[in-house]
Amino acid sequence: MKNLFTKVLLLVVVLLWSGSVLLGQDGGSEATVAEEDKSKIRFNGLGRTLINRTGIEGDVVQADTNTIDRLTDGEFLLDLAVNATPNKTSEVQTIIRLRNEFGGFFGAGMSVEVRELWARGIIADFIKYRVGDMDVVMSPYTLFSPEEEGFVNEPAVFQPLKQVIDYEQFYTDENTRRLQGGKIDFGLNFGTILEDMEVSSFIARIRGTDFFTIPNRLIAGGEIDFSTVTFDDSLGIKADVGFNLIHTFDDLQSGNAVTGIRNTVYSVDYDVAILDKSNLSLNLSGESGRSEVMRSERITDVDGKEENVMIEGTDQDDTFMDVGLTFKLKKQKLTISAAYVDVGPDFFSTGAQSKRVEFADNEFRNGKTFYDRIGTDRELRRVSVFDLSRDRELYTFRTSDQLMAYDPRYSNTLPYGDATPNRQGFKFGVHYGADTDKIEAWANGAFLSEIRGQGTFELKDFSLIKAAANINVHQFLGIKNMIRATLGVQLESTQRGGGEFEEVDLNSTLVDLGLEVELFPQFDLLFGAKLFSSEGRDYVPVLTGFNDIQDFPAPFIADDQETMLGLGIKYEFKKDIYMTLQYNHFSAELGADNPNNYEFQQFFVLYNMEF
Question: Taking the CA atoms of the chain, what radius of gyration do you get in angstroms?
Fold first, then answer.
C-alpha cells in the first residue's frame, strides 16, 4: 500500500508539472470542453488536513472512570479529479481519494478509493446524456434534499466544518440528491404560444441487492417544463408549467426477495407571472400532485413462470397542494410571499422526504464521532447543535422507504421539509436586500396544524418563525477592511389540548450570532455563538412499514440549554485555499441536577485547498 501511495503521488507531481490545465471539481462546462486550446486530460481536486482535539468535562465525568477525557483525531486527504475529453462531444471524470487517518504511519490507516466516476456528452448536437454519478433535483415534493435542522444563519466561525460535511455528503445549494445511474436532457424551441420545452429523465439504483432477501431498489423519473411567450407586453404576463413523475421500485428478479415496494409521485408545478414590470412583479406559483404506495409480491405459477403482482389491501394514496403569491419591489429589493399548503397524512415521497440527518441508531449510521455514550451507565448521548454542526457520521445522502426519525427539539413543524405529511396551513416569507448591501435580512415561517390526529382525535398546532440578518458594518463606518455581523433566530412551538395523556406543549429557540473582522487583507478574526433551548413535552410515534404507527412510547421530555461559543482566525492564501485555527466551547445542561450535564472543549486546525 505504501508503494502504491508513493507511485500515485509521484504520478500526480509529474503530471501537474507538465502543465495540465486545472479546472473546477465538476470538470468544466459542456460549452468549453471542445476548445482546441484545452488539454485533453486535466487535473483538479481538493486537499484537506483536519486535526481535532476534543475534551469532555462537567457533571457526567465526575464519577465516571471509563470515559477518556481527551480525544485526538483527524485526517489527511487528497481528492484527485482526472478529467478527460476524448473528443468534442464527450467528457469523462473520476475522483480518486487518498486518505490517511491522523496517527497512521507507514501506510497504517491509509485508504485509496474512487469517490466519483461519470461520463457525459452530446448526441447529434441535441440530446445531453450523463452516466455514473450525478446530482439530480426536481421539485420539493418529488425529488429534493430538504435542508437539515439546527441552522438559521450559520456564523462564519462554524462554517468550515459544516462545509466539510456538505462536501462529503454531496450536498449543494440547489438541494440536489446524489444518485448513480443515467440521465438524458433535451429541449425544443417553438414560435407561438409556447416559447420552449425542456425534457429531463433519469434512472438510478439507490440500493444494491444482497442476492438473498434484499432486492435492488431503483428510482426513475423525469420532468417536462414548458415556458410560454409573453401574452401581454404591457403587463408581462407569461407562465412556466412543469409535469413531474418519480417512481421508486424494487426489482424482485434480483436475489430471492418475494416482496417489494412501489412508490409513485406525480405532480404539476407552475409559476405564472401575473404582472412583471421594471419596478415590481406579482407571481402565482405552486405545485399539486398525488403519491401512491403499494407492495408487490413475486409469485410462481404451476408452470414455474414468475411474475410480479400487487398485494391487495396495501395501497396508500394521498394528495398535496401548495399554492401561493410572490410580490417583488425590484428597486427596493423587497420580496414578500405567502402560500397555503395541504399535504395529506398518507402522502409519501421517497425522493423528497428522506432527511439528511440520521437521528436513529440503525445500520445506516455509526455512533457519533465525539463521545457517543457517556456517564457510568454508558447512556446514549442525545444529538446536540455541536454534533449537527460538525459530525459527518450523523449525515447521509441515502433515500429511505419510510419516514426517518427526527428530533422534535430542532424541527417539529416541517421535519421533512415542504413535503412533511399531515400538515395544512399557511407559510410566509420576506426578503430584503442583497449580500453586498449594508443590510440583508429575511424571515420565513409557517403556521400549520395536523390534518389527522395521531393516537387521538386532538390535533397538534405548529408555529415556526425564522429570521436572519447580515450587516456589513464596514459600509456604515466607511472603512475598507470588512466587518460583518450576522444574526439568526428560530422560534418553534407545538401545542395540543386534551387530557393528561394527550396534552403537548413543546417550545424551542435557536439563536445564531456571528462576527467577522478583517484585521489584514485575507486575514480574518472570527467570533460566533449558537444558543439553543428546548422545554416541554411531545409524543413522537414509532413508525413501521410505510409510515404505519406501531406504538407511542413514553412522552418525549425536553429541558435543554445548549451553548456553543467559537473563536478563531482564518487566513485565505487565495480563493478556495485557506487555513483556520479555532477553539470551540460547548455546554449542555439537560435539566436541574442532571448527572449527565457535560461540556466539550475542542481545538482544531483545518487546511483546505481546492485546485
Answer: 26
